[in-house]
Structure formats: structure tokens, C-alpha cells
Amino acid sequence: MPKMRAVGLERYLPIEHEDSLMDLVLDKPVAGGRDLLVRVKAVSVNPVDVKVRAPKRKERVESPPRVLGWDVAGVVEAVGPECALFEPGDEVYYAGSLFRPGGNSEFHLVDERIAGRKPKTLDFAEAAALPLTAITAWESLFDRLGIAQDRGVNDGRTLLVIGSSGGVGSIATQLASAAGLTVIGTASREESARFARKHGAAHTISHFEPFVPQLQALGLPSVDLILCLNDTAQHWDQMAEAIAPQGSICSIVETDERIDLTKLKNKSVTFAWETMFTRSIYQTADMIEQHRLLNEVARRVDAGELRTTLTKRLSPINASTLKQAHALVESGRTIGKIVVESF
């Protein structure tokens, strides 16, 4: 059977451990059903990669080894017999599924309904920086928070993005400002504040200081909407205080701590979670919405309306380089996205 190179793990270890990620040789997969077989050109490393790879409370051993990686750009090598959206030779980008092998491999299988056509104006590394963050930002804003895409509808409305300089934040800020919202981004240092303003934030505040006094200094007694991309439990009380009556909050950051939803009751505030893997995990009837979403993101990129947030390239795709990328993401001080390209 044909083989391929990949990077994976057998045990969940600190990134400094020599076996935290390992170079592997695995069987090359075969496309069936609605799967695309993609020749991987570039992959991005996200907080989800770090969380999945991190040590677990109860030791687990993966046999066969587990391959991570949930941001891919590449070229369709082959298509399954039920495919209708792509053909061999098409350039694609996507985030894949948590419950299938990841994209840190020379060849990768993905359901065509969650893949999009790569933006023509971007190279593979620039494109690989986009899928997971773009899907998460899009679904958070337009599906969970119910923001209209018509600029006129959103005039005068405000959105607070907590963690605005990260991968999701820098896409969400662009999308929200393009939709006519006034975006206030939080940042931990001036470098990240500048990055947020560069991508569309009208104002920035510190997420290490109380929100309301900083908002009041901007002439804002509250905000209509909040997107939390950083430590839900830590910021919960601040969000509950800053949100306007009948406002909405969406978070993408899970927590083991209890959060008091009753703090939102008197204001009749809506709270929603966002996980971009929901559609692929549950094989929902609307899975194809991610295909359409990614195609629209590509259209906006090619039209100059949306920018990739790639800030660092590493090469080649192997265990050593991916360890470096994991360590950078794990530091919590990255701005934008880190991409690893070329086997």
C-alpha cells in the first residue's frame, strides 16, 4: 500500500518532550463517499492543536498514532465517488473534523461539504491561516450573535471583542467592522492593540483592567454585543457588567469553572457557545454551509475586502517545526496566525 509522511503522537506530553510530536510513515488514505483526498501544502497551528496535544489527567496511549492539524490548504488529488463540488487539481482550504485524522500529513481526507475553494490571490500558507478562524468568527458573529451582514442595519451598534489580536479576533474584527459595527477590541499590550486597530477595531482597551470604566472613557456606557475569545470564566463578571440590556454574548472558550448565568437575567441577555466543529461532529443537515462560508470568505479575500492574518511562516512540515509552532501558540503571546508549509 502507498505510504505518506505525517506528524503525530502516541502519548499526550508537554511540548518540550522529545516524543510530544513524532515523524511518522503511514498508509496513504483512499477517498470514498464525499471525501476529497488532498495533497497538503500548508497547515496552521491553532490553540485547539495545543489543547488536544497537552497532557491529560489520565494517561492515554494512541495506537495507531494520532495525527493533529485543523487548518489545511492544498490540492485535490482524488475525489470519492459521491463528490459533486470538486475535481482533482482544484486548490482547496478547510479546517476538517476533530473526529478524523488531522491534516499534519502529506495526504488528508476531508468531506467536501466543509471545504472551500482556496482564494486565488493567496499562496497556500496565506490560505492555511484562514479556515478555522474564519469559520469560527463567521459563525460567532452571524449565526450565534445574529448580526446582519447589511451595514445599514448595524449603524450605531457596538461589539466588544475580547482577545481581538489573535487568529479568530483579527478575522472577527474585520468581518464585524465591514458589517457596520463599531468594534472595541481588548489587548494585553500595545503591539497587540496596534494589530487589532490595523484590522478594523475602532478602539482598544485592556482586558487586564475593568471594562466599564474604559468603555465610559470612550463615551460608551455599555456594548450591544460581546465576543469572548479569551478565558470565559475570568472575564465573566466584566462581561455581565458591560453588556447592554437585551444584548448578546458569544464565547468560544470552554471552562471548567462555574459561571453564574443569573448575572444576565435582569438584562435579558442571550448567551451562546460557538464551536466550529459542531457541524462536522454531528454531521448536521447544514454541513454544506461551511463550504459556502469558505467560498464567500475566499471571494472577499480576492476582492480585497478581507485579509489573511498570517504573521509567521515556518518550514518544512515535520515534528521539529511543528513543535516550535506549538510552543509559540502555547506561550499565549502570539499575534495572528502561525503556518507551517511544505513537506
From TrEMBL:
Keyword Zinc: yes
SMART domains on file: PKS_ER
Domain of life the protein comes from: Bacteria
Domain Enoyl reductase (ER) residue range list: 19-340
Keywords noted in UniProt: Metal-binding, NADP, Oxidoreductase, Zinc
Entry-linked PANTHER family: QUINONE OXIDOREDUCTASE
Protein name per Swiss-Prot or TrEMBL: Zinc-type alcohol dehydrogenase-like protein
Species assigned in the record: Cohnella xylanilytica
